[in-house]
What does this fold into?
Amino acid sequence: RPMRSFTLFLFFLITLCHSKKISLVFEASGSLSTNQHLKFTGQLLVNHVEEGQRPWHIKIFANETTNGVHTGTYLFSEDRAARVDQGKIECVHPFHLPPLSGIQESFQNLQPVDRHSIKSGIATQCPEELSFFLLQFLNEDYLVCLGKDSIHSAYGSHFSVRFENEQTKEWKVTSLSSCPSSVHKTNATRSMSAIPSNNWWKRDSERRDNPTKTCIFIHGSGIREDYNWTPQYTDYWGNVDQVELTPQCKTRKFIHMNTFNHGWDYKPNQQKVCDLVVSGTADPGPLGVANNTIVFTHSMGGLIFAAAQINGLCKLGEGSKWYAASPPTNGSQVANFVDQICDNPEWRTIISVGSNLCDGSEPAASYYTLAKGYPGLDKLHKYMQKTVSGQMCGTSSYGLNSIDSAGLVLLAEISGLSSPNDGLVSWNSCHLDGKNFGANFLGDWYRTPSNHADTTCRNGDGWWGVDRRPCSWYTNKY
It folds into this structure.
């Protein structure tokens, strides 16, 4: 998360403070910091070069502080970036760096915004003597509060940042020649010129002010705890319980059930899911009809909910919808290799972070029900094809550069998981046929270069492009 925060810091410095040397304090709040207060104190030096060359020579030094404690030092020089810890340089992968060629164009196209048109409650945070401008970058909208020679603050769809002028000493930037360059590094999923801006800052706040839905969250495999429900489940779902991410929810209920020892065909878990799904309906009737309810499932949770409905334990009624994140609707190739994976101590150590696959050398029993060809999977796939209202499917085992990344990359490689995949589920197994998948989180059918853990929301959102916003996908699902 701090590395993604640094790239955002880098983006605003380059975009808003071009053609001069400047020292700034950057403070982030909102889902950017994931309940932590992040602060970067740094210096930017920009030198224009001759026409026909790259537009800038840029050097940045930034100290990172988390909750008042120094937690890192970041460097950016030309097209390379790194984190420095006790003299050791850890390179930042080019995928996590903003494309500088697009930043110049974005800055040249700043548009003034009438503060009276801003309905998100941030208009009062910009002093009256300053003005709002709209900055569009990779089809994302950013509002910036600017004066003639000053930057006050900036706002994204789920974060805000504040800038302060601060005098800092002259920094001597370490050579980063050993780090990979971001020049000419491209990614097909990042080309999104056809995707319209989402205009989050213009959105009507009615649904936020008057939430009406009961929201049910059903987790996937690998969980051992077994009790009723809680109003949040941060270890699994991150901050998706916060009103900023799920403003449509009047009530949020997160189930906790043993999905380590039991697979999707375990009837007691199916009944437990249905009991929770209908809990927000005054009169579900003998058929267990849930009205005005949104059900979010992740991974095997989608298979449990599908099986429960097939078995007649409950069904969705008026005003209800079901959104499935990363469901292995055709099983997972990883499950076919689960015995070999858990029998290897070195593999177990790496994958233990990204998944709850093993208990020592013993595999989670639930994974056997996800093996390719397991009886009943085909029936679940056909049922979901007709009943799911939207899906999020990941296409990158590495995902958003989190603690889960290495383990999921290894899982995909060991099991020979077909590409693209999210580390546990291939695209071919996740996505339902005939659906209009796109790279914008505002859509119901969302294809994102995120991994299996990212799609729970526990690793936050990416910061470059609407294709890397797994948390935001939950926001506008009604």
